[in-house]
């Protein structure tokens, strides 16, 4: 063994150029693959830390409106949890749950914003959140119990090491709940980063407060249930779905009678999603405020990582085997002296093991060092404690073994049936000796061209979404958070800002397009039914956003009262309601009240540009839905500093303990497309890495083939061949395979990008120039890579070349 290692090290030193090329390429591929696999593994880890995650499901349902439109939702009545526990014996635990509320704790000197959740006692029996202090059986038992997290405990105590014993039993007051104090009965560790359930405090559903009343017919709570051990999920879920439909039967019949639901037996269908899949498969309506990922993007990143590995592995195999051909003479001597195939295998195995282990070690270190760079590019964070490290180690071990064995066996199989006398001649390498290598190069270039096309296409689509006209003026708008102020105080702040220099307009609304949405179902004339997005706004909303009033009038101050029954609709609402003439003056009904349409505005993009423009209504009445959440301030950018100073001064004048928070709309709009930008950047860098690895391999292959054709080049030059002719001869085969690669890559890239773009309501075209540019880039890279070495071989003195041979 020692002798073989020494011999392998001498060979590595003798072939430094080849070893350096293969090591750099393999290390770069392993580093980038490691980072991508860490990120993908982390994304797949969400909700898996719960002990019984395999048995926990979230209830969802799908309804079919009168017009045939299907919509899914997760919001149900909290009473359904108790009904299912009583009716379905396969259920171990069942709890309603609400989150997404930003409540304000009323502390002595200031108010503290808290992410508030609501559940029942079984929540902590079902989910494995770590309890630091308190008795799990005593959590959320009384209507005024509250459970807080470690970070909230630190904020309340004012230090990083609070005394939990002193906090247990302490009373907490919320600003929106009058005359009720909550008692701390438990302190949890902070919610893990890979949890879709996010909260800082939890209170029980048993608290009887008007704040918790449902605002739609089917409810406004999420429902989780855990099945008993050994229960078949498929059979249990079928029973649960039937019980859910039975629970809602009266509501379904009423909605059908009022022409809101389709009059069919399948207008309501319950279904469930496993807890483990919520993060990546959470596309159900009503779940927009929950943390979600993108399974399609993870698949793309995984494919990109595997493509990079394929390019690096095939490079290594091609160059390593090509280098071993130079040892044909040595193998001939060994076989002539009685050497066996196993001895030749061990010789290759030792050398391969050393170079591959070095590559993996360098790749692992490089990957670890570059993780902060990836975090910056992707605007995310990789945490090692959230990733299944043993699976990555196993993958590394298996890939090392596969690569070492493969690169050691292939030359043995090539040499084993060749006579030693033939091994000592050049005839072994005659004919199409580079054919297999060039096929691999062609495949590598095809994959690289696909990556280049994907990079350009994704970047083009992202820019299209960011620059697409939204139908309103989104520039120079500030959104001031007033969700914790009462409506009259918020109006006072708006009126003060209206008078300030630099403020062009200011408006109150309950949605600023970035914090979720509300929907209601409307019908007209007892026939047409439409599920519609609804926004609460004052009479300054339309001029603040510079919306176009196409017909009718705007709200006036007299409409901003509790009894108002007027609404303004967009073009899509009128179109879907099939109004033949102007909708102004038409009456629509939401099942509780009738409203008169007084105005028609242009369609504008209140959802992201991934989604098509939907029907929308604006209402001004103050007692409909929740209070105002934002003051939208349209400002002159030249007076921005004065405007911000005026907002701060106005906040002090209204005398509130709430902290001032404001955001710029242009930055919020850009953040809507972070996932596309992250994907575009990641694939761009992956493409660069693939190109570098491919170029290194192509350069190394050119060096090997040029060396093998030294005699041929010398003879051609002696016979009068010019340098340009020799360069063309050496380059032509590579350029031919680049052309084949382009022909192969174009339909593959077109199909993949076409499928990706199907997820967007508004999309750019896959223009011909994208494919042409990718082909030209691939051709240019190939020419730059091989031409230098071809020029060196072509300009070599033919006498020296023939003497070498």
TrEMBL record:
Arranged from A to Z, the UniProt key words for this protein are: Cell membrane, Membrane, Transmembrane, Transmembrane helix
Residues that span the membrane, as ranges: 21-40, 300-325, 345-371, 391-415, 436-458, 683-707, 737-754, 766-786
Which molecular-function annotation in GO is an example for this chain? transmembrane transporter activity
Q: Does the keyword DNA damage apply?
A: no
Is Membrane tagged as a keyword? yes
Q: According to its UniProt record, where is this protein located?
A: Cell membrane
Xref: InterPro entries: ABC3_permease_C, MacB_PCD, Macrolide_Exporter_MacB
Q: Where is the ABC3 transporter permease C-terminal domain?
A: 303-419, 686-798
- Any idea what this protein is called? Putative ABC transport system permease protein
């Amino acid at each position: 063994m020692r002798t073989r290692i020494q011999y392998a090290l001498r060979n590595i030193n003798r072939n430094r150029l080849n070893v350096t090329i293969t090591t750099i390429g393999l290390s770069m591929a392993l580093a980038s693959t490691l980072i991508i696999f860490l990120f993908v593994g982390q994304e797949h880890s969400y909700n898996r830390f719960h002990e019984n995650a395999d048995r926990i499901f979230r209830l969802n349902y799908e309804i079919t409106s009168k017009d045939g439109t299907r919509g899914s939702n997760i919001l149900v009545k909290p009473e359904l949890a108790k009904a299912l526990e009583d009716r379905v014996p396969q259920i171990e635990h069942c709890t309603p749950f609400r989150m997404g509320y930003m409540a304000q704790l009323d502390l002595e000197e200031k108010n503290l914003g808290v992410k508030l959740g609501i559940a029942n006692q079984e929540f902590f029996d079902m989910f494995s959140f770590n309890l630091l202090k308190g008795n799990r059986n005593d959590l959320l038992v009384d209507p005024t119990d509250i459970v807080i997290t470690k970070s909230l405990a630190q904020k309340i105590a004012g230090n990083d090491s609070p005394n939990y014993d002193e906090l247990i039993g302490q009373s907490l007051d919320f600003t929106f709940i009058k005359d009720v104090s909550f008692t701390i009965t438990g302190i949890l560790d902070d919610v893990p980063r890979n949890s879709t359930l996010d909260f800082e405090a939890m209170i029980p559903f048993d608290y009887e407060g008007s704040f918790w009343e449902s605002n739609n017919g089917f409810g406004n709570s999420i429902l989780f249930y855990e099945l008993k051990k050994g229960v078949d999920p498929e059979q249990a879920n079928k029973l649960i779905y039937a019980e859910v439909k039975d629970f809602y039967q009266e509501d379904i019949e009423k909605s059908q009678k009022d022409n809101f639901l389709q009059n069919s037996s399948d207008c309501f269908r319950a279904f469930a999603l496993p807890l483990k899949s919520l993060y990546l498969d959470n596309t159900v309506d009503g779940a927009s405020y929950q943390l979600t990922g993108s399974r399609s993007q993870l698949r793309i990143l995984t494919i990109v990582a595997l493509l990079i590995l394929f390019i690096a592995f095939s490079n290594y195999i091609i160059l390593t085997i090509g280098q071993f051909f130079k040892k044909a003479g040595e193998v001939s001597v060994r076989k002539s002296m009685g050497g066996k195939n196993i001895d030749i295998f061990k010789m290759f195995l030792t050398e391969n093991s050393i170079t591959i282990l070095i590559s993996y070690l360098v790749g692992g270190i490089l990957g670890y060092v570059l993780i902060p760079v990836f975090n910056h590019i992707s605007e995310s964070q990789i945490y090692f404690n959230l990733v299944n490290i043993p699976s990555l180690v196993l993958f590394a071990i298996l890939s090392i073994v596969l690569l070492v064995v493969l690169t050691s066996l292939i030359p043995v199989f090539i040499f084993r049936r060749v006579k030693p006398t033939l091994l000592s001649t050049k005839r072994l390498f005659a004919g199409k000796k580079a054919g297999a290598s060039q096929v691999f190069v062609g495949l590598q270039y095809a994959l690289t061209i696909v990556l280049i096309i994907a990079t350009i296409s994704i970047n083009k689509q992202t820019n299209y979404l960011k620059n697409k006209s939204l139908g309103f003026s989104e520039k120079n708008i500030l959104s001031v958070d007033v969700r914790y102020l009462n409506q009259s105080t918020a109006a006072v702040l708006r009126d003060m800002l209206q008078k300030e220099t630099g403020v062009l307009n200011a408006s109150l609304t309950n949605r600023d397009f970035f914090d979720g949405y509300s929907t209601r179902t409307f019908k007209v004339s007892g026939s047409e039914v439409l599920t519609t997005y609804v926004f609460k706004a004052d009479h300054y909303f339309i001029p603040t956003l510079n919306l176009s009033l196409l017909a009718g009038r705007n709200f006036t101050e007299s409409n901003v009262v509790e009894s108002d029954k007027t609404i303004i609709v967009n073009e899509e609402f009128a179109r879907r309601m099939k109004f033949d003439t102007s909708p102004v003056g038409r009456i629509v009904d939401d099942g509780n009240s009738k409203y008169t349409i007084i105005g028609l505005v242009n369609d504008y993009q209140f959802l992201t540009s991934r989604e098509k423009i939907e029907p929308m209504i604006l209402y001004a009445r103050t007692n409909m839905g929740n209070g105002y959440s934002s003051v939208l301030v349209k400002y002159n950018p030249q007076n921005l500093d004065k405007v911000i100073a005026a907002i701060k001064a106005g906040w002090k004048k209204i005398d509130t303990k709430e902290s001032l928070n404001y955001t710029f709309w242009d930055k919020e709009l850009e953040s809507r497309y972070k996932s596309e930008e992250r994907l575009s950047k990641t694939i761009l860098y992956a493409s660069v890495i693939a190109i570098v690895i491919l170029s290194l391999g192509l350069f190394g292959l050119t060096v090997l083939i040029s060396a093998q054709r030294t005699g041929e080049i010398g003879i051609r030059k002696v016979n009068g061949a010019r340098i340009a002719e020799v360069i063309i001869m050496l380059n032509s085969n590579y350029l031919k395979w680049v052309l084949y690669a382009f022909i192969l890559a174009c339909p593959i890239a077109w199909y993949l990008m076409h499928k990706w773009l199907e997820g967007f309501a508004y999309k750019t075209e896959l223009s011909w120039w994208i494919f042409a540019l990718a082909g030209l880039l691939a051709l240019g890279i190939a020419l730059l890579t091989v031409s230098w070495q071809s020029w060196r071989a072509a300009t070599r003195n033919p006498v020296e070349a023939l003497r070498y041979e």
